[in-house]
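Subgroup meeting minutes
Present: P.N., E.W., G.H.
Scribe: E.W.

1. P.N. recapped why we're keeping a running log of single-chain structure predictions: easier to compare across weeks, and new members can see raw inputs and outputs side by side.
2. G.H. added today's entry (117 aa).
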Amino acid sequence: QVQLVESGGGLVQAGGSLRLSCAASGRTVSASMIGWFRQAPGKEREFVARIFTNGGNTYYADSVKGRFTISRDNGKNMVYLRMNSLKPEDTAVYYCGAGPTYAWDYWGQGTQVTVSN
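Output recorded in log:
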């Protein structure tokens, strides 16, 4: 089992920045991939970004490419999502997910991000 705990959400004005953190614990060797998803009210959960823990290969949704950056610190079992140039449409609950390659087996509880006009 892998446990994931997100932090860093909050209220920010449009154009501002936030950094989300995801702390992983437990059997982290089974989490070769860690990523971020988000879910806005009334919408389905959508992919935001992911990183491979070995090698650091990253991939982003088109909607956040160039504004968000995912990074990792393997020594601390941490994954970060730096969000710049935030827009009101980025408002959502952000979830950290993890698992073996291309299987999202583990999820955190989520952290709220609200972007105001």
